[in-house]
Write the structure tokens for this entry.
Amino acid sequence: MASLTSDKNGTIVVSALRARANFGKLLRRVEDERRSLIIEKPKAVLLSIRDYVKLAAPEPEVLRVIGEESERKGTNRLTARQIEQVIKASRADRSKR
């Protein structure tokens, strides 16, 4: 895929012919590298499903704040089992009151 270019945002820009010839590889790059792809003539954009969902249904502000706080506290790395243990302990503590 020699004649791929990228714009200033890192978006892949490719001709329709090259996109057709390398569609599978381009799909994997869009997903793996979390980039978008602009296909020239006719103009089209290929986005990962994650990027599409962000555009179609933006994250509510409250969830963004909760996510940032979770990252800051390190709780975003808890396993499902650890989360269940925290919930169980919290419920036990609450029932003692």
